[in-house]
Amino acid sequence: MLHKDVFEELMSEEELNKTVSEIAERINNDYRSRPLVVVGILKGSIMFLADLYRKLDLDECQLDFMAASSYGSSVSSSGSVNITKDVDCNVRERDVLIVEDILDTGNTLSIIKEHLLSKGASSVRICTLFDKPSRRKKPVKADYTGRTIEDLFIVGYGLDYSERYRNLPYVGVLRSEIYS
Length: 180
Ligand code: IMP
Ligand code: MG
Known about the structure:
There is one protein chain. The chain is an alpha/beta fold. 24% of the residues lie in helices and 32% in strands. The strands form two sheets. A six-stranded mixed β-sheet has the order 4-3-2-5-6-7. Strands 1-9-8 form a three-stranded antiparallel β-sheet. α1 (13-30) packs across α2 (46-54). The longest helix is centred in the first third of the chain and has 18 residues, at 13-30. The chain starts with 5 loop residues before the first strand and ends with a helix. Magnesium ion binds at residues 44, 160. Residues 44, 160 line the site of magnesium ion.
């Protein structure tokens, strides 16, 4: 049974599991013998990160977190993004992989990627479960993407609307009357 505010299911638990496994396989191939710092972006990425991280078969993959806030609305970020939590570890001369729930306008990830590069990371790649390229305002590209979607507002599996629906085990399209 879907949540009453969800219009339709976009990805079931099974589909999510399969998609996360496919992404993990690509990351495992790309970083096989390179130490990696995995940086999850709070809070939306946590379910995806927890599932992805357990599928990483790498000798060394440190886990860290960042958080950012923007003055946008509940459905979209704005150009002024503030980093509210920085990584704890030193990323200088390390390969970093950012793990994010969804890449939308690109405002958040462009700031975060620049920040990690300015701290001296030797490489910064982006792994996002969902991508909405039609909404892009900054020239940010993901290196690993689970699924490219239309301009829909989705919730569940960590993704929220006003801090709700993160607990849904599937990803669904939120009914437009909830946010309009
Ligand atoms: P950006 O800075 O516009 O790329 O937005 C990234 C952030 O906006 C994500 O980390 C999400 O928190 C939020 N966001 C964008 N689209 C959606 C969506 O469809 N559902 C839930 N959150 C979204
Ligand atoms: Mg959010």
